[in-house]
Design brief:
The complex is a heterodimer. Chain A has helices at 3-39, 70-103, 108-122, 126-140, 170-200, 207-225, 250-277, 280-288, 293-323, 335-346, 349-378; strands spanning 155-157, 160-163, 165-166, 232-233, 236-238, 241-243, 246-248. Chain A has a three-stranded antiparallel β-sheet with strand order 1-2-7. Chain A has a two-stranded antiparallel sheet with strand order 3-4. In chain A, strands 5-6 form a two-stranded antiparallel ribbon. By secondary structure, chain A is mainly alpha-helical. Chain A is globular, with a radius of gyration of 27 Å. Helices cover 39% and strands 19% of the residues of chain B. Chain B has helices spanning 3-17, 28-35, 61-74, 90-95, 110-113, 157-168, 181-189, 200-209, 237-256, 263-269, 273-278, 285-289, 295-303, 306-313; strands spanning 38-42, 45-46, 50-52, 58-59, 80-84, 101-107, 118-120, 125-134, 148-153, 173-178, 195-198, 216-218, 224-233. In chain B, strands 1, 5, 6, 7, 8, 9, 10, 11, 12 and 13 form a ten-stranded mixed β-sheet that branches. The chains are: A mainly alpha, B alpha/beta. Chains A and B meet through α1, α4 and α10 of A and α1, α4, α6 and β10 of B.
């Protein structure tokens, strides 16, 4: 036997042993689980998702009430998770950027204040912060009958914030279409401006202002054409609670506040590292061109800093999405809460946990995918 | 590595795996005896029901049941390991075998017995699901609560009964759920909710301990009965028999006037054949169950008869001071019954 053939045979044996171990573990898990489940006469599978869910969830983006399917209940939970995660990502990035710039400020007070914020917030466990904000809101704000009302129609109590919302009027749907058209027009103006600059060296005059005008003017024109109808759905205290209008629940507010402030402290450090990672020559070059500090930051430093910051920021977003599961502790009806209540109702624990796993895995993979795409687009193209 | 090599590896893997499958398991009662310890899932935050104090001592109605079970099976009420569980953890913990008994004021229902694959003992505490409301709201019956915000303990059957009751009457409500009841009551007392739903005994305790006990009404009407019972997994008939007869034994002891104080003396001196048989002095009823003949002596020595067990933890001798109500002996107008001890 040649040495080569011996090596191949040896490799095969090792591969086989490894494969056997993996398959063995897998089979053992499935076998044990199914044996135990059948011994306990528990049905398995996801059929229960089409049964009626006998519970209410409190807040939902889609119509839901007890008696709808478990599937719909899960959908409510997933959307609630998505809502808080998306808002959290946007807000934590904005606040994080502000804090990062503030930390590098020449004013000692501002820089120290930002440093203090970061060191405090990122060193306190998130769960504690969520409970803290929830307690502050439910305990600090007055009960519903003594709700604060700074302006007629706006009410703040420990049941949440209630504000007037646009009621039903045909004009509003058309205004939305107008808004979309305005955004489209603004994008077109931007594209034309860039193209013209490429061709002639000078873009359209005031492209930003023109775009903004398109976005504002088109819906406004529709609004005026309909005779400026104002139909407001104003919240009013009816029976036990405020009804009508739009509302933000204390649970959602606490989760969003906690997640945003916590993640912002990490984002601030990431973005600061990005800013400091831009060679100081860039700042000096900007100054040599006669740009002001703010413009240098906006036009020269931040775009390059973001290039450095995108991969760790993606990580930070992944953490935010996963940590939103902690909000089950204060009763925000996100996917874990739905899974928990479904679990105690149906006892399909393996199925429910697998749904949670799948949901977070999907969210994380999609976020990572978007992060990678943005990173590739922003990366320096080496020629 | 070519496909042929891979195929060879797969074939070899399958051969290695053949015949390596797990075998059958023994009866839980024997496992517990061999282990010398009972593992009991309970709660740790509700004085009188299940409570872990600052000295590390467990007490309460649900805790005592497990102590009694340890005395019955192992002859020593201290041979229990307690595991504190949240509402959402309770069934997975029992199902997975992490605990032997779930004694955590769990409401007995048909589906928990059948579809969930559990067995229950008793029920050993009979109550219902009621409401406590802020008095200022002027609510006098559950029907007045249409549109209210209601605090409900997450992961319990009260969530379902609450929704069922409102749905059946075309009423609506907004739930506010919390994972543990300390958190839940704080939300209610801060007026985050108009009402809170729970078994009235527990509502009464919290009202008593609140800043303003007169500011809250407990509605008389109950939306569901809640007969609470210790749970075990299906498929351990001997274990179930021992626990079920321990429950009957507590009731029988009260009927016979056997108490924590006199049980040892009665076992030594009583001439009454009923008591002698009950306490295992005559016959071998205990041995037939798979435990010691004098097992009921150990149980009653540890936790008393049902009346003592109830009164000490949640009844008239406890801070909760609940009346026996439905939980009195059948001959006193209650619902506690036990078959004959022959």
């Amino acid at each position: 036997m040649t040495a080569r053939r011996f090596r191949i045979r040896r490799d095969i044996v090792w591969q086989a042993l490894f494969l056997a171990a993996v398959i063995g573990m897998g089979t053992l898990v499935v076998h044990t689980a199914s044996e135990n489940l059948s011994r306990l006469s528990i049905r398995s599978g996801y059929g229960f998702l089409w049964d009626k869910a006998p519970f209410e969830l409190g807040e939902s983006l889609i119509p839901y009430r007890a008696g709808d399917t478990y599937f719909r209940a899960f959908l409510v939970g997933i959307l609630n998770t998505l809502k808080v995660a998306l808002l959290g990502i946007v807000l934590s990035t904005v606040i994080g950027t502000a804090i990062a710039i503030g930390q590098l400020s020449q004013s000692v007070v501002v820089a120290r204040a930002c440093r203090f914020y970061i060191e405090t917030v990122r060193n306190v466990p998130l769960l504690l912060q969520l409970i803290f904000w929830h307690t502050v809101i439910t305990r600090g704000l007055p009960p519903v009958r003594r709700a604060l009302s700074p302006v007629e129609g706006i009410y703040l109590s420990n049941r949440g914030l209630f504000v007037p919302a646009l009621g039903a009027h045909p004009a509003y749907g058309q205004m939305f279409v107008g808004l979309l058209a305005g955004i489209g027009a603004a994008a077109l103006i931007g594209w034309l401006s860039i193209r013209r600059r490429r061709l002639t060296g000078a873009g359209l005059p005031w492209p930003g202002l023109m775009g903004l005008a398109a976005i504002v003017c088109l819906p406004l024109a529709v609004f005026l054409a309909h005779g400026a109808p104002v139909v407001l759905d104003t919240p009013a205290l009816k029976g036990f609670n405020f009804t009508g209008g739009a509302s933000v629940s204390p649970e959602f507010a606490a989760v969003l506040l906690g997640l945003t402030l916590y993640t912002a402290s990490f984002n601030a450090e990431i973005i600061r590292a990005g800013i400091l990672g831009v060679p100081s020559g860039q700042m000096e070059a900007g100054r040599a061109l006669g740009l002001r500090r703010g413009r240098i930051m906006r036009l020269v430093i931040l775009p390059q800093a973001m290039r450095i910051a995108i991969p760790p920021l993606t990580n930070s977003y992944l953490n935010l999405i996963k940590e939103s599961s902690l909000s089950v502790a204060i009763g925000y009806p996100e996917v874990v809460r739905v899974a928990n209540i479904t679990l105690s109702e149906t006892n399909q624990s393996i199925e429910c946990v697998s749904i949670i796993v799948a949901v977070y895995l999907c969210f994380s993979l999609v976020t990572a995918l978007i992060g990678n795409r943005v990173n590739r687009a922003a990366a320096l193209v080496e020629r | 590595m070519t496909f042929r090599h891979l195929a060879g590896a797969v074939a070899l893997a399958v051969t290695i795996l053949a015949g390596a499958m797990p075998s059958a398991r023994a009866e839980l009662l024997d496992d517990i005896k061999a282990r010398g310890q009972l593992v009991c899932g309970t709660l740790n935050y509700l004085p009188g029901v299940g409570f872990l104090d600052d000295k590390g001592e467990w007490s309460g109605f649900d805790v005592d049941f497990c102590k009694g079970a340890a005395a019955a099976i192992l002859g020593d009420p201290d041979k229990v390991e307690f595991v504190a569980l949240t509402g959402a953890q309770k069934f997975p913990a029992l199902e997975s075998g992490e605990i032997d008994i779930l004694s955590r004021s769990v409401t007995a229902t048909l589906s928990r017995d059948s579809a969930l694959g559990f067995d229950y003992i008793g029920p050993n505490h009979m109550t219902g699901q009621g409401f406590m409301v802020h008095k200022a709201l002027g609510v006098s019956e559950v029907g007045d609560l249409d549109g209210a915000t209601i605090c409900v303990l997450a992961g319990t059957v009260t969530e379902r009964y609450l929704a069922d009751y409102f749905r059946a009457r075309g009423m609506s409500f907004t739930p506010v759920a919390a994972e543990n009841s300390d958190q839940l009551y704080a939300l209610y007392f801060d007026e985050r909710c108009d009402a809170i739903t729970m078994e009235p005994p527990y509502l009464a305790v919290r009202r008593l301990r609140s800043a303003d006990p007169d500011g809250h009404v407990i509605l008389e009407e109950m939306v569901a009965k809640s007969f609470e019972a210790p749970f075990i997994r299906n498929g351990d008939p001997k274990f179930h028999e021992v626990l079920q007869w321990m429950h009957y034994g507590l009731i029988t002891a009260e009927e016979l006037g056997v108490t924590q104080a006199n049980v040892e003396e009665l076992a030594a001196t009583s001439e009454d054949p009923v008591i002698r048989r009950f306490l295992g002095v005559d016959g071998d009823l205990g041995a037939e169950l798979g435990v010691a003949n004098d097992w009921m002596v150990k149980v009653i020595k540890a936790i008393g008869n049902y009346g003592e067990f109830y009164d000490r933890n949640i009844g008239k001798d406890s801070p909760l001071g609940l009346p026996r109500g439905m939980n009195a002996l059948w001959r006193d107008g209650g619902a506690l019954v036990a078959p004959g001890w022959q």
